[in-house]
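Hello again, I could really use a second opinion on something today. I've been staring at a protein lately and its backbone has me curious. You're getting the sequence in one-letter code plus the fold written as tokens. I'd be grateful if you could look everything over and explain what you see. No rush at all, and the record is pasted right below:
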Amino acid sequence: MTHLWPRSLVGQLLLLVALMLMLAQSVNSFLLYRGAQNQNLVESSTAAVSRIAFGLDRQASDRPERRNSGMRARRWGRLKFGPDSAVTDTMPRLPELEMRAGQAFANMGIGFSEIRVTFTSDLPTAMTGHLIGANRGEWRNNPINRSMGGRPAPTGTRGFVIISAQQADGRWVSIASVVRQRTPMLVRTLLFQTITIYLLMLIPLILLGRYISRPLKSLTARAHAFQPGETEELPEQGPPDTRELIRAFNAMSSRVSHMVNEKDVMLGAIGHDLRTPLAALRVRVESVEDDIERERMIAGIEDIDHMLDDILSLARLGRSGEQADPVDIRSLIETIVDEFTDLGHEVHYQRGEKQSAMVRETLIRRALRNLIGNAILYGSSAHISVEKSGDRLLIHVDDNGPGIAEAKIESMFEPFLRGEGSRNRATGGSGLGLTLARAIARDHGGDIILKNREKGGLRATLALPLG
């Protein structure tokens, strides 16, 4: 069911309107069908009333010597006269048609003590010779009548209306009339009506939907591709509400760009103002005679310098001037592995086939260094492998460390939170390595995934899109 429901707002609106129209048209069709069926009953009962009135009138006007002749059946129709009503007490009666028939007879000056009307799908045997309308189809389908412009008779018989009226002398006069089934024309009419309504309603809604959705699609694409510092504004188009939304988005993007520019200026000033006294302090520390104290001071200054570098890199992420280019990931990993092995660290790379990805090489190099550095710090060694999964390239960095509790894995990406509780960089780092690595991965449309290995240790995966 979810696959049939449109994702776009316009598609959902059109589907909802179509369903409501279908529901309304279904109710309308049902009411029209019931009305047509009732109309068929009224027409058949009207014909029966007319035949009774005509037959009684001819009976009264004929000469007495001819009333009992065989001409009566032809002149008076097929009226049935008898002491009993053709509509028995077990048959369902139609009060509305009985009232209509009574009014019609009264208007024609004919009085009956009781009138009974019923509808039946099977004609009683007693009424077989007293039926009107049965040969209407044959007459209307006659070639001569058709050649004179007559319409073909509708096919199918729905049932029979039987009218029985009691005269003043107690005798009953009865007649049966065929009720025709006229639904084929009704179905065609309803189908034409439905198509017309859909065209008149949905075509303007489709045009209106495109008028509304086109600027919204442009706004969505601009929001997905938004980069701080863009000066080109999105053209205002569409209805007034959409224009106001685009105008608000342009104002917001302008404010964000100004804020980011101010942040970059502030970060540049912080980096310059902090590194200058740190460099001067480093020079002064060199003059300390105690070797142990001097090394501790130098290590502290380097910790501050590295942490400052991480903070500035994380804050400036997304504003890098470096463009994404096709990079051979295998060669990039081999270069980083050589750097760590030259420093005496145990790093293994399972060399695979050549894989390229559109990345900013400097940033990806830094993210991989952070992951490999964490693996060496907590697991003494790092094992790197690369695999392709769909449209993503997965770079796995495995270690042999203690791993991370499942409940704490997501919290490890928070700034300044480290797996080791001390503030010593030699044992715990700055607490920004994973944060910076994930920010770099997500800036490329990828992510960092941490997962404990079944055989022990932790696997950190850098997922990058191949496109």
User: Anything to note?
Assistant: The first helix runs from residue 9 to 61. Confidence is low (pLDDT under 50) at residues 65-76, 137-142, 144-155, 421-428.
